[in-house]
Design goal:
alpha+beta, Glycosyltransferase, 4 domains, 9-stranded antiparallel sheet, 8-stranded antiparallel sheet, 21 helices
């Protein structure tokens, strides 16, 4: 028998006690005004009081199926593991005004609460609020750097190249050398000459691996997808530039051809075709001629002697690791036994005379080594033409192509160069992996090695829209409509079941940017089909036996784990998709709009019922300040985070014990507009998520699947947002080339889903929409407004049309000035601009609008097209 006490600070009205994996033997009101019916587990308390329980047949040990006590009252409901009840660490839930402790504990509620409050303890989030704002430099000091292979390509074309220098890679042979790998999204290129095995071209600049590792990499101007590398080998420095261009024709926007979206889809990991789509692909493969132009990896290395005496420079020409070949010094060609040429190489503009070479350089002297690798080997005749290409001309063409892409997008200038560069480079990274035929055909918005997914492609498309690339975003959205099943279902990846709702949501977000009713009318039939599919799916779950177990909620696999449950993420996407669909149909006068909106609201209410049931039935957990908080599972009909194993199971996956809870959990319901950001439920979810499932407010394993940074911004919690923002990017992105891994354990390079969410975090820290309000600079660090610093955002796309803002800090003179320009026809109804003083000082006055000191925000109702704000601090 175990005896415990429950202390209330206020009246709770009627209540009940239920015990899972145990038995309630005794129930008694021992203090306060109340009564109980022990046999029924019922009680009533009018005012503060104490309830004592005696439990038998209990399991208070570690592991699954431990005794759980559930308490329900008129005001609150919660649950706890019996084994967690302790005199030393009472279960204290301040939000509910309740404490659970051992029955022998004689202290009152007030005494226990005061003792815990005076302990000086803090939750993780409270500690973050008490610390200085996070910065990249501080985050980078503690985090481990990850080096990611660089992907280079043309944009629209699925023929890519992956490259890295010695010491990087997942193969001992690769790590020993510098390496170039022609690839498609899903795989390294396979050739007849290699027995249909992946072809790996290895080469070497300098002497090789040694006691020092002095290799640095970057992008051209730290933005463009042109790779720069520098290797210091004692007195010799090897400076490398590499990019991808065409074999013979000029590389321009007009000559860009691209890859058919079905071919690119099929060349990506996890693709799914219906029988009809497979048939379309087969017809395409039969009728689509081979491309006359190969994409080519152009590399040029300049070796310079920085010493005071002659020194040797060494070069090893690219060669396949796994195929027979010969080297022809008269042409500088690497040739397979088939006669096809896989590389053309030069030394100081002439054919490389031998495969491996040492060149003696006098002090200050340089030598250049060039090699050009076609994606698929070419004939000798084509190789002769390839060898004649000018590296400098191709380089200029390539740079001009990517500059034009960036010049046509939102222009950003920030006080923190790294973040500015990452926003620009990231936009080009996203564009690089949107494959399709130019100039205006469907694009598949892939996510690195994986094909497009309605959920994971969402941030990619949203950021394209934010940058003003609306036509590219629309073409990417067309992929989901083109591949929609006849019954309305949208599914493209690995059995995921959430894409229909996710795709509708992103369609709705795109419409909010462009307000193109003609486009809505064109896609109206497909949107209606998607609705009918979701409606039928939901109707199958409106069954009475599901009451309390996810009534009305959709079931199905949400992500990689084979979890066919009624998950909150799946249902939240269905709700958000239906809500956006109702909005879009209403815009074009579709009479179905009201029914869709009603279904969205009904689904929302069923999700809310389930989430509140889950919070009541799930065991509370301790926080860092001595208090406890309710928890929630990732799906209906489980008790608590599955990683606590209340109902058993085997849930560890993807290198973490908490992935299912932290990455696929109920926090999605906030961004999916089921839970309000400032709701009590959202506060509970944020609290236990942070303490159980985060390091430095960053989720484990695949951190950008967690949406809590957005929730922090919506709640006005800038410091927790910045903690997650900087520690997330410092730990998962390559600090030199700005590309992202999917996981911390080097799985899936150039993962644009992760990069897309990082880019959206950058976008959110600069601007956020809330109904008719545009919030500006809600998440910027204070350091960005130090003396003389400027923020400039030109032609940014929002739900209120395009706008610009220029911010200048002149703290020495006591002012921060903001100049805003909005779309003449689509201005927001209200603007809130946060202008935080670098040392936290409050403003004395504002030249326009109302200043709110607590949020450091100027609020302007019905702003004019152009607004000038001068915030004065002294």
């Amino acid at each position: 028998m175990i005896k415990i006490a429950i202390l209330w600070n206020d009246s709770v009205g009627d209540g009940s006690i239920a015990v899972e994996y145990g038995k309630l033997e005794r129930l008694e009101v021992t203090a306060g005004q109340g009564s109980c019916i022990p046999a029924e587990g019922r009680f009533a308390l009018q005012g503060p009081g104490r309830l004592e329980l005696e439990l038998g047949d209990e399991n208070a040990g570690q592991g699954a199926y431990a005794t759980i006590v559930s308490v329900r009252s008129t005001r609150h409901a919660f649950s706890f593991f019996l084994r967690d009840v302790s005199r030393a660490y009472p279960i204290y839930i301040p939000a509910y005004g309740v404490i659970v402790t051992e029955a022998s504990h004689a202290e009152s509620y007030g005494e226990i609460a005061e003792r815990i409050a005076s302990s000086g303890l803090r939750t993780n989030l409270q500690q973050i609020e008490a610390e200085p704002e996070e910065s990249f430099e501080r985050a980078a000091e503690a985090g481990r750097p990850l080096t990611c292979p660089i992907w280079l390509g043309l944009s629209r074309d699925a023929r890519l190249f992956e490259a890295d220098f010695r010491g990087v890679g997942d193969n001992d042979n690769i790590r020993s050398w510098d390496c170039v790998r022609p690839r498609y999204p899903a795989r390294i290129n396979q050739l007849p000459e290699t027995g249909d095995a992946p072809v790996l071209y290895y080469y070497l600049l300098g002497r090789g691996m040694g006691a020092e590792y002095r290799v640095t990499r970057s992008l051209e101007e730290r933005v463009y997808p042109i790779a720069h590398g520098s290797i210091r080998d004692d007195d010799i420095v090897y400076d490398n530039v590499a990019f991808v261009s065409y074999e013979a024709i000029p590389f321009t926007a007009d000559t860009l051809q691209g890859t058919h979206y079905l071919a690119a889809d099929r060349a990506s990991v996890g693709y799914m075709f219906t029988p009809e789509q497979e048939e379309s692909w087969e017809r395409l493969a039969e009728t689509d001629p081979d491309r006359p132009e190969e994409t080519v990896y152009y590399s040029k290395t300049t070796a310079t002697n920085l010493g005071k005496v002659p020194r040797y420079a060494w070069f090893k020409n690219p060669a396949p690791l796994n195929a027979a070949y010969t080297f022809e010094g008269d042409g500088g060609f690497g040739v397979f036994e088939s006669g096809r040429v896989f590389v053309a190489s030069k030394l100081d503009g002439r054919p490389l005379p031998q495969e491996e070479i040492a060149v003696l350089l006098t002090p200050g002297e340089s030598v250049t080594f060039e090699f050009y690798i076609p994606h698929t080997p070419v004939s000798r005749e084509r190789a002769l033409l390839l060898a004649q290409q000018s590296f400098e001309l191709r380089h200029r063409e390539c740079l001009a192509f990517w500059q034009a892409k960036l010049d046509g997008a939102m222009q950003v200038r920030l006080p923190e160069p790294r973040i500015e560069e990452m926003m620009k480079a990231g936009y080009l990274h996203l564009d690089l992996v949107c494959y399709g035929r130019e100039p205006d055909r469907t694009l598949v918005p892939t996510i690195g090695v994986y094909t497009a997914i309605g959920s994971e492609s969402s941030p990619i498309i949203q950021y394209l829209d934010s940058m003003g690339a609306h036509r590219t975003a629309e073409r990417a959205l067309q992929f989901f409509l083109d591949k929609q099943h006849e019954d309305g279902f949208i599914q493209n990846f690995n059995g995921y079941m959430l894409e229909t709702g996710a795709a509708l949501y992103v369609l709705g977000e795109h419409y909010r940017y462009v307000r193109d009713k003609a486009w809505l009318t064109r896609i109206q039939p497909q949107m209606r089909k998607a609705y009918e599919y979701l409606k039928g799916w939901r109707d199958r779950n409106l069954r009475e036996e599901l009451r309390g177990r996810g009534y009305g909620m959709l079931e199905g696999k949400t992500a990689d784990p084979e979890d066919p449950f009624r998950s909150y993420m799946l249902n939240g996407f269905a709700h958000a998709g239906l809500k956006r669909l109702a909005e879009m149909l209403s815009e074009i006068g579709d009479p179905l709009a009201d029914a869709v909106g009603a279904d969205a609201e009904a689904l929302k209410q069923d999700i809310l019922t389930s989430i509140r049931e889950s919070l009541a039935n799930s065991p509370v957990v301790p926080l860092g300040d001595g208090s406890w908080v309710p928890t929630c599972p990732p799906w209906a009909n489980y008790r608590g985070p599955v990683s606590l194993y209340a109902d058993g199971g085997k849930w560890g996956t993807h290198g973490s014990m908490v992935v299912r809870d932290s990455l696929l959990g109920p926090l999605y319901l906030v961004i999916q507009e089921v839970l309000a950001p400032d709701s009590v439920e959202a506060g509970f979810l944020l609290s236990f998520h942070n303490e159980l499932m985060c390091m430095k407010n960053v989720a484990l394993s695949q951190p950008y699947y967690s949406v809590h940074p957005w929730i922090h911004l919506k709640r006005g919690e800038t410091k927790p947002f910045l903690k997650a923002f900087y520690n997330g990017v410092a730990g998962l992105a390559d600090r030199e080339t700005y590309t992202f891994w999917e996981h911390y354990f080097h799985v899936s390079p150039h993962k644009t889903h992760e990069e897309g969410w990082f880019l959206m975090q950058c976008r959110w820290m600069l601007y956020l929409e809330e109904e008719r309000t545009l919030r500006l600079l809600p998440g910027i660090p204070r350091a960005w407004l130090e003396q003389g610093k400027e923020i400039s955002v030109r032609d940014a796309a929002s739900h209120f049309g395009h706008f610009s803002m220029d911010i200048r800090s002149d703290i020495a003179e006591g002012t921060i000035t903001a100049h805003l320009v909005f779309d003449a026809e689509r201005r927001p109804g209200k603007v809130k601009i946060r202008l935080p003083h670098p040392s936290g000082m409050q403003a004395m006055r504002t030249s326009v609008g109302t200043y709110h000191a607590a949020s450091e925000t100027v609020e302007i109702d019905d702003p004019s097209r152009e607004v000038q704000i001068v915030l004065t601090f002294a």
